[in-house]
Fold these 2 entries.
Entry 1:
Amino acid sequence: MSSQRPVFMGPRLRRLRRDLGLTQTAMAADLEISPSYVALLERNQRPLTADMLLRLARTYKMDMAEIAGDGGAEYTARLQGVLKDPMFADIDLPPLEAADVAASYPGVAEALLRVYTAYKEEQLALADRGAEARAGSSPDADSTDPVGEARRFLAARRNCFPALDEAAERLSQQAGGQAGLIERLKARHGFRVRRLPPEVMVGSLRRLDRHHDEVLLDDSLDTASQTFQLALQLAYLELRDEMDLALKDGSFASDSGERLARRALASYAAAAILMPYAAFARAAEARRYDVEALARQFSASFEQTAHRLTTLQKPGQERVPFFFIRVDPAGNVSKRLDGAGFPFARHGGACPLWSLHNVFKTPREIVTQWLELPDGQRFFSIARTVTAGGGAYGAPRVERAIALGCAAEHAGRLIYTQGQGDLAQVEATPIGVTCRLCQRARCTARSAPPIGRQVLPDDYSRAMAPFGFSDS
């Protein structure tokens, strides 16, 4: 009796072949079998024996466990996540059925995931157009806003791109971590790294000089920023196909919107090279999401680390879902990522009661805060200022504030809540999304009346709040 145990894994083999960029004929030639046999294997009409697994591993220099692993696990986790959407709440969808679809019909699973992602993207676009219309501006204004397009692209995917994470992790391992980035640029691409003063760089932080085969860096950048720029250049050089694939199913009305989304993906990939998903996720749990400790462990900046924490939603390996926002002293939002269901203000100013807007008074000090929205939702946030620029006397600096937060049910996993006792009983600051949407009539920080409320005259009485409202 043969000791080989046959297994059927046609969809996994098909995906592997496509990932390698091979036709059935080319794979058949590599494995010294017939193209028709490859076709039978992919259709699960023939088993994939241990001998064939070994041949695949040797031919394509891959780990056998990687080839034989559960190819449907990722689709299963993603599909199960999608089916948790409230729109499916009235449908009985056992997890086992999703697993069956993902394993047996990966093409159908991928099609469903693409349709759902497109739906979420259009849903966000519709919400933006509605908000614009209520604000009195053109309904089409945001549809051609490149920043809005890029934000919708990221939000619809919860700022999580597993394929990019996996490719970046492989690149990081091949390079030998952060210390090997310079050697990787030299050995694989023939570029040496030079650091030049700002006056020579003439406004550039990084420049690829193909004529002289050099990657030029502004020498006034701190170590974390220089390392990030090297990882960013590697991402553009080696992960272009993965970024193109991620952008392929995006919906962009302008070239600028797509370019901004590509820039966001490149930064995502750079962070994934410096903070590989598996290692970073383990460290985040072990250190209870201590941003400063993680930043030191991975030789990254506070902002880079906080940003990376928002991406830990790989299907089947999810960690605490965070939201992230960055503002300047005038309240302008320059970065906004939501993986925690926080209802950011899409138009108008945010709530001044949020500590995010007050940390400029205490530079580089972490300020924690519990937040409660008018509908009762509770969130926990940390806020701190970060500095860009500088690096030399007289060099311009930009101070911004960033906030990182999560829903109340996850707050107990963060180091910032230790010693607070019963977290359900901790007093929260009542905030609103924006004054026009907040119905808290007695808020003394209000700057505008809420939509739909009639302002009372103050001929005979003036309340402490800026506006008085009728009950109807």
Entry 2:
Amino acid sequence: MAAPNLFSFQGKVYLAQRQSTGKPGPLRWVGNAPQLELALEVQNSDKFESFSGNRLLYGRLVQSKTANVNLTLDEATPENLAEGLYSIPATLPAGSVNNELLPPGLKANDLVALDRGWVSDVAITDSANPPVTVPAANWWTESASGGVIGLRKVDGLTQPFKASYKHGETVNIALFNTPPPERMLILDGINTVTGQRAKVTLYRLTFNPIEQLALISEEWGSLQLSGAALFDESRALDPDLGGFGRIELARV
């Protein structure tokens, strides 16, 4: 039989937009989260006595209290990325582009990035009057998803070239396009040693920007989010709730 007070927690982490009422909006499961840490800290001002000759600690004034949070996410969903990039994901619909100007002065074997990715039905014309279609043998698609094309031959054609193409629907995550939102965090956890259920709630949470995002890596990728739980005065007067959050353990 396991010792009754040993613990090792796992569980589902949910984030929700904090509503004006102070309650959470719809919960969003963040997927596999191998690490969730809560670090409490106080800043003290110490007073040392001056009468014994030993300058001993005589008093301590707590100047501030902070509750910091570290959350590791394994799944790079648009919503998870947006948390650490201060972004609101937006769907850019599929469509078509006509006569997009390519850079002037292109030479054979140059690569060009189109404005959109996931391209198909690409056609290239030059700037002659009337325009001349650049033969398909004169260029190639280097990457359809990246929207990259390459040029084999440019002689006898009038630049700048123009590209027309279709593009696919994408989810756009622009960096720093929104202030950091306030979240509520709920952990629906279990002590894997004893089977005891636990619930952790943080009322007001803001994340810092992701310090480092591994865009190319030989290992599993992860999103390292850090932030702070903010004081919630609407709950602070209730001793069962507290001003930052609470941990609830099932009675066993």
